[in-house]
Amino acid sequence: MNYPTQFDTIIFDLGGVLVDWNPRYVYRQIFSDEAEMERFLQEVTTNHWNEQQDAGRTLAEATEILVAEHPHFETEIRAYYGRWTEMLAGAIEDTVAILDEIIKSGRHRVYALTNWSNETWPYALEYFPFMRWFEGVLVSGDEKLIKPDPAIYELILSRYNIDRSTALFIDDNLKNIHGSWAVGLPAVHFESPGQLRQFLAEKGVL
Question: First-to-last CA distance in the chain?
Answer without folding.
Answer: 20
